[in-house]
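Exercise (ungraded).
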Amino acid sequence: MKCLIDIPQLSVGEIKELMDTAIDIDSHPEKYRERMKYKRLATLFYEPSTRTRLSFEAAMMQLGGSVIGFSNSESTSASKGESIADTSRVISCYADVIVMRHPKDGAPTVAALNASVPVINAGDGGHCHPTQTLADLLTIYREKGRLDGLTVGFCGDLKYGRTVHSLINALARYNNVKLKLISPQELRLPSYMRQRLESGIMEWEETDSLEDALPSLDILYMTRIQQERFADHDEYIRLKDSYVLNLKKLSLAKPDTCVLHPLPRVNEIDVDVDSDPRACYFKQVENGKLMRMALILRLVDGDDVPLPESFSDPGLVCPNPRCVCSSERSVEKKFIFSDGEKRCFYCDHKAIALENK
Amino acid sequence: MKCLIDIPQLSVGEIKELMDTAIDIDSHPEKYRERMKYKRLATLFYEPSTRTRLSFEAAMMQLGGSVIGFSNSESTSASKGESIADTSRVISCYADVIVMRHPKDGAPTVAALNASVPVINAGDGGHCHPTQTLADLLTIYREKGRLDGLTVGFCGDLKYGRTVHSLINALARYNNVKLKLISPQELRLPSYMRQRLESGIMEWEETDSLEDALPSLDILYMTRIQQERFADHDEYIRLKDSYVLNLKKLSLAKPDTCVLHPLPRVNEIDVDVDSDPRACYFKQVENGKLMRMALILRLVDGDDVPLPESFSDPGLVCPNPRCVCSSERSVEKKFIFSDGEKRCFYCDHKAIALENK
Amino acid sequence: MKCLIDIPQLSVGEIKELMDTAIDIDSHPEKYRERMKYKRLATLFYEPSTRTRLSFEAAMMQLGGSVIGFSNSESTSASKGESIADTSRVISCYADVIVMRHPKDGAPTVAALNASVPVINAGDGGHCHPTQTLADLLTIYREKGRLDGLTVGFCGDLKYGRTVHSLINALARYNNVKLKLISPQELRLPSYMRQRLESGIMEWEETDSLEDALPSLDILYMTRIQQERFADHDEYIRLKDSYVLNLKKLSLAKPDTCVLHPLPRVNEIDVDVDSDPRACYFKQVENGKLMRMALILRLVDGDDVPLPESFSDPGLVCPNPRCVCSSERSVEKKFIFSDGEKRCFYCDHKAIALENK
């Protein structure tokens, strides 16, 4: 199978190859600009995500390919009761690679199992968004020359930020990465992520002060704090400015610290910071496009990228109401072993025994 | 004029040519992949139909052409009170061929009369959807090697299914085609279609049992039964499973029966059937794209495909409230002779005398 | 900077060059059909405008380029609180030229200040829509062979018609152009335009009779009269037909009068007029595409097209609630001198002193 659903499908070596390809594309774009000639990419966006969609479309076109697809609520018609499996088989007649965004966790996995062309996950509910993580990795790699031995701060909403969890998991595979987790009490890393860290995969510490953490950081990954995450409005007002990066706070950082943000930002980074050479969030956008180009080439022209090995177990169920396995007809319930647990093949949630449901 | 509004515009010979081209495209795609280079197709979809739109877009791109257009409710702005005639003239400045989907019967005919480029009907209200029928014909032809001498079953909703009526009319032009019409009482073929059959154009019989009909069929054309078609909910519940195809029922069929479905399916064909070699509904999708490629080539590069000869008659009116002639300003009322009746040029409804209106 | 926000950025000589390029494209399309190969245009339409969008898309494709973008309410997601400045920097990673339609006056100026690729204004609120004016100018130039010495009638809604004001301003730069302003009392040219005319930039007169004006006109520019512009419904009913052009009225015109309309029309020009050789409104559509092609080439490959020189003044404010400077975060308030007044850099409204606000 050729698909990218989540980062763990790729070995560290394969990520390195994608990054090398991305850098080569940037240096020699003319070598690549007809590589996808006569090929079509389909963007199946069951919920809007303009930024991600345009990045994939630009990536495909810059490889000489064409794009078809849908981008928003039209998808309600696109589905018209049709299963993701059927849609994937239909679109396989029209395109050479499928990019899917879907509100249900695991939907692109169902697509990958049924399509006869490669499938790329462009965000499935709260599950994963691997090409954002690839953009983050490439940016760090290009700015610092390595992914090992870095001190990486994550600031803001660490509880709900899917991109934060995915990048932490990815960085855990490199040597000597230290984490500084900077957030208010309410928005600390969720327990499943903390358990993973506590198992000793990397060095980490928590703080609620951006100023305290800044001087030690090689990388600062900023995220947005959303008001609605706070039960107490006054608490939100009291805290929000502490997690805004401005030039004054940035003066505490090292001269080669690299500031990232998955965008869109609202006000968590002052626009004054944009002209500081440490601001790398617009480079992240460019790097995202380059990694998507490398990934398209890899999947269309390269070897298989298998999904994890799965098994059936009639005694288990997936408890996640947002998982595609609970809404999509005819999806075979399957499970994987991961982190020593039995988990849903589609959404990675810990499976529970049927009798406990 | 170069347009395809409905299948009867094409002779049996011309359909054969389109099918031969489609098969040749499938065998030698590289011969065709720059045939529409420097040309543009416009998809004017006044109502969403993602599947049909993507099929046309893939078809044009696979011929080396580009696509512009709109795909949904945006069309309300597209129209902004502009007549179909004006829009067609405007789009003729932007594109080399127009594909139109419109909720009004006959709208693409108005477009064809005003555009200076070819127009293809991609579905106009309840009127017709000729490229679906071309996909059906090619699939039958490729699977069975012929269109003559076949026993063809239609199962499910034969009353409202536009694709069923169109394919029956198309098959009536071949020799020795026998129909088996399989439906509940409520959803039998409508009277205008029955009258046509009763005039002796082909052999036919009706049944309400899929099991009884299956052993004799060369082709089984499945359709969806929609709950809202039944006045009596209990009747729906009692009947619906009889018209679901599963492996058990399929075991009654011949080993070379070919199962078609216009898609999307909901549950009228079990997914278990998909892996049976007799399941041809995903081949239909591929064949639909190939026939659309053949049709685009035929219209852009080939001879005229004229509309039926029409006449004016101030004493006649079209009684169809969904006809474009009743909503579009400045549409000249015209009529044709067909099946021995005077009919509306745009929607094929039987015309009525003005004084009876 | 390379952008086209409004016509005055272009000298008369530069407009002439664009027109010459457009005419050459029309004569020798094959010379231009790969000029934008490997390049991408982004259509950022924060409000729908199908006609304008498709014209730009066809223009880019006819130059061999590709198109990405969004076209409608999806834009609400596109923004998701992201500033126009940030979006422009993001899209600069994906495309080689940006075309923006936005409901706020001045939004494309903000984009131009932040993008690293050329930006074209495709309509910003009530502010301007320069490529429509370029289409109008080319049509007049091609039909009459000149832009000097013409008598030009504008008929209909001269109060709210942005295209009318823009074309009048553009024509004022040519020699011996005479205006006939034909409208009901309610829809006369607004005071700021009248003041400009009264300053003596060109000869002009007003009338409420289309019939009276017609015999003298070289050009008749028709516009739509919208019912909602009238306080008094009876007045609307009484007047509306006076400003409808039909063949009878057209018989009063010279044999070489040229009739323009920015489209879409509703009923302000009878369809009977379409076949009169003096009807040039569909030629305008074609000319609009050609001028957009010329403009894309000019901006992507040519020299800078600077914005007017601006200055800061903390004592001034822009009073326009629809100006982008009042809604967009982090937009630096700037002003220009124009027509002897201090005006907002973004929306051209006369600035007011802060203390008068």
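Further reading is listed at the end of the chapter. For now, observe: Residues 316-356 of chain C form one domain. The mean pLDDT of chain C is 94.
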